[in-house]
Design goal:
- With about 210 residues, the chain is mainly alpha-helical.
- The chain has one domain: MetI-like (MetI-like fold), CATH 1.10.3720.
- The protein is about 80% helix and about 0% strand.
- The chain is built from eight helices and no strands.
- The longest helix has about 45 residues.
- The mean pLDDT is about 90.
Length: about 210
């Protein structure tokens, strides 16, 4: 344990730099996935014939092994942050897309009819009724994606994207448990902190009447 604390004290600048790279890469991937998947999920609730084919295609992406996915990115985008961000974004699409689609579809039809009875357009019903009620489902998907992405970003080191994976792979190469923990511990801390932050954000975004007391 003393050796571990000593290693952190000596190498803290490198750990901090790699942590920053890891956060940036993960944030880009999660944000891009949300920007793509949430509107797509909304679109699929309006065009349900397309839902199963599109969800099926996106599901197939999840079956591709991580190293293979990063390998496919190299001929297209080279090495570095861009191919890693694209690969992580592709992996992150399904949970957000599926939860958005399911969350909106699970809204009580009576509430939708009530909104229409008050003179709301279909987009007003979506914005004022369906999306607020579906917030819990959507944020659950975002939380899952964030955790998966932070964990998966460690593999990005194999295509020179940096991050805490650099420290972990260095430790593996040296067969040095302390070096491995220098990278693994910050990854675990990031996962826990981000999960708690998104859990709190989800509660804030959810309508007061739906919050569990």
């Amino acid at each position: 344990m003393n050796r571990l604390w000593h290693a952190f004290a000596i190498d803290w600048e490198n750990i901090l730099a790699r942590t920053q790279e890891h956060i940036i890469l993960s944030f880009i991937a999660v944000a891009a996935a949300c920007i793509i998947a949430i509107p797509m999920g909304i679109y699929l609730t309006r065009h349900k014939r397309l839902a199963q084919p599109i969800l099926g295609v996106v599901s197939v992406i999840q079956t591709i092994p991580s190293l293979a996915m990063f390998g496919f990115m190299i001929p297209l985008f080279g090495i570095g942050t861009l191919p890693a961000a694209v690969a992580l974004t592709l992996y992150a699409l399904l949970p957000v897309l599926q939860n958005t689609y399911v969350g909106i579809n699970e809204v009580d039809p009576a509430l939708i009819e009530s909104g229409r009875g008050m003179g709301m357009t279909k987009w007003q019903v979506l914005r004022m009724v369906q999306l607020p009620i579906a917030t819990g489902f959507i944020m659950s998907g975002v939380r899952l994606v964030a955790v998966q992405t932070i964990s998966g970003a460690t593999i990005a080191t194999y295509i020179a994207a940096g991050g805490l994976g650099d420290i972990i792979t260095r430790g593996i190469a040296m067969i040095d448990t302390v070096s491995i923990l220098e990278g693994a511990i910050p990854v675990c801390v990031l996962v826990l902190v981000v999960n708690l932050l998104l859990l709190g954000l989800g509660k804030l975004l959810m309508p007061k009447g739906l919050r569990k007391r």
